[in-house]
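F.,

This is the one I mentioned.
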């Protein structure tokens, strides 16, 4: 009877993976779950519940206007609701009986219960053969584990890790109180916009209906990572209580030297590690750790900046203290909006090896203003700064290590005008802010002007023409930079170029721009080929 109850209340089983190791006993388990474990009725019920949840405010408003919320009308509705609940309970019982008569599901639920009681290596190995509702997966790594905070400075609290926030305006006490009262309606409006429309526009991958539509593709991607790449799935518990879904592919046992390096991948606003940018470093031979944003697929929570940073923190702690990688062997690779968590990691863990940002931007405000009406400019700016402040450039400038930016020359997402206007690509602004912070003397008027000319080039031929026009001597540039580094140390900002001619500053500016930014002739969502995934330049 206890086993039958476990089958009724147990998680949905999606797939039984084929055996990956020769040491495991052979099994006749099918590669796809049977219809007994996953009846269509339960799937439709979850979709119906999601639609009802999002449409409930409109439904209540409609019923109120029509007078259906009076006591005489509510009683019959409650009868219908009770009947519907009884039908759903009957469906759940039938599903449980079907699972109970299925030997594969009974074997799965036995392994799951044993793993929750004792997370031994053998139990985890057996559980890894199943893909099921991730809410029932046991936690593999906790942010408060003693070993995870030994080398951290202070560490996060339950309120979350530290973020850079806009500087407050200093006013008198009375003036400040008056301003707070005046701004209260605007702040409430900003909060409502951010937590309803804004968050879903910024992270459409967190919308349940989209995830439901993508479920077959996500399951197929997980199967490929587990069966073909020997990936290991894990659940991490962040400091805010969110559970983060991760996938680790270990290449340290291969003959390829890049397998000793770990690439942590940060996906875009509708990207999942199952089908996202993890494929690029995988094809290049690196060890890879992918993770899903809070609220994406198996990860819980909502993808606000604080939750994003909390998730990235526990992912890096997991890589260092559980997977055994040193910070010097970790590369953070991000695509699009994933640049926020990547630059936060670079700022907070300055010892990581390198940062690669593909199709990313400097700041969210210009891109948000692009898609909203001009009359909303004040509301949009305030909402982004207070609740959705993705300040990538500000965070990246706090990092001292090697950086590579990849600009899509036909990008239609992070341009503020049209894709053909390459100078409106916000990747340009990210490069300029980084170079101006690191080399302020080089990026004076002459240097800034010539780099802008180089960024306007829409083809490799035009780039080479501008580069050769100023007769950039790369050996001379390297020698100047190395001499400065040897004399003054590696920490940025540098004052190199202070006593240099205008031509010398132009040469250095072009040289540095070319080393920090590579062009890729593609649109925003085109997968980056493995040959374009390169380590950043450093002296």
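My design for it:
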């Amino acid at each position: 009877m206890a086993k039958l109850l476990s089958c009724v209340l147990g998680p949905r089983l999606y797939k039984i993976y084929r055996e990956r190791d020769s040491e495991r006993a052979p099994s006749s388990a099918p590669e796809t779950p049977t219809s007994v474990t996953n009846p269509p009725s339960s799937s439709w019920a979850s979709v119906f519940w999601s639609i009802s949840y999002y449409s409930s405010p409109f439904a209540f408003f409609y019923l109120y206007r029509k007078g259906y919320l009076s006591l005489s009308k509510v009683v019959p509705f409650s009868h219908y609701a009770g009947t519907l609940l009884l039908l759903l309970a009957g469906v759940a019982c039938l599903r449980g009986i079907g699972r109970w008569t299925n030997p594969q599901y009974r074997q799965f639920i036995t392994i799951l219960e044993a793993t929750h009681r004792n997370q031994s290596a053998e139990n985890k190995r057996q559980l890894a053969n199943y893909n099921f509702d991730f809410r029932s997966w046991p936690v593999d790594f906790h942010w408060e584990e003693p070993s995870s905070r030994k080398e951290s400075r202070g560490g996060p609290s339950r309120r979350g890790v530290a973020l850079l926030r806009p500087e407050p305006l200093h006013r008198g006490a009375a003036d400040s109180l008056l301003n707070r009262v005046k701004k209260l309606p605007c702040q409430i409006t900003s909060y409502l916009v951010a937590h309803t429309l804004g968050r879903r526009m910024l992270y459409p991958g967190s919308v349940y209906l989209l995830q439901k539509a993508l479920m077959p593709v996500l399951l197929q991607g997980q199967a490929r990572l587990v069966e073909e790449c020997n990936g290991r799935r894990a659940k991490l518990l962040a400091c805010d209580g969110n559970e983060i879904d991760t996938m680790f592919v270990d290449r340290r046992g291969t003959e390829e030297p890049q397998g000793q390096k770990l690439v942590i991948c940060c996906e875009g606003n509708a990207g999942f590690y199952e089908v996202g940018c993890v494929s690029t470093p995988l094809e290049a031979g690196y060890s890879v750790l992918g993770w899903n944003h809070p609220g994406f697929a198996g990860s819980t929570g909502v993808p606000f900046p604080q939750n994003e940073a909390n998730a990235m923190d526990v992912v890096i702690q997991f890589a260092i203290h559980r997977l055994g990688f040193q910070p010097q062997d970790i590369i953070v690779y991000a695509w699009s909006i994933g640049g926020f968590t990547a630059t936060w990691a670079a700022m907070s863990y300055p010892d990581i090896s390198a940062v690669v940002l593909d199709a990313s931007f400097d700041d969210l405000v210009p891109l948000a203003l692009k898609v909203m009406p001009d009359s909303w400019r004040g509301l949009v700016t305030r909402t982004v700064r207070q609740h959705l402040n993705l300040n990538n450039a500000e965070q990246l400038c706090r990092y001292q290590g090697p950086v590579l930016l990849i600009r899509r020359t036909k990008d239609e997402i992070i341009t503020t005008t049209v894709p053909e206007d390459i100078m409106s690509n916000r990747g340009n602004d990210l490069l300029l802010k980084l170079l101006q912070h690191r080399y302020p003397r080089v990026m004076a008027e002459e240097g800034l002007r010539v780099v802008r000319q180089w960024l306007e080039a829409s083809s490799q031929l035009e780039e080479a023409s501008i580069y050769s026009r100023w007769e950039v001597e790369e050996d001379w540039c390297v020698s100047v930079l190395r001499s400065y580094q040897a004399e003054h140390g590696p920490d940025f900002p540098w004052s190199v170029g202070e006593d240099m001619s205008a031509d010398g500053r132009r040469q250095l500016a072009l040289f540095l721009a070319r080393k920090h930014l590579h062009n890729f002739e593609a649109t925003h969502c085109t997968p980056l080929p493995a040959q374009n995934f390169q380590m950043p330049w450093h002296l």
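Residues 1-17+56-138 form one domain.

Talk soon.
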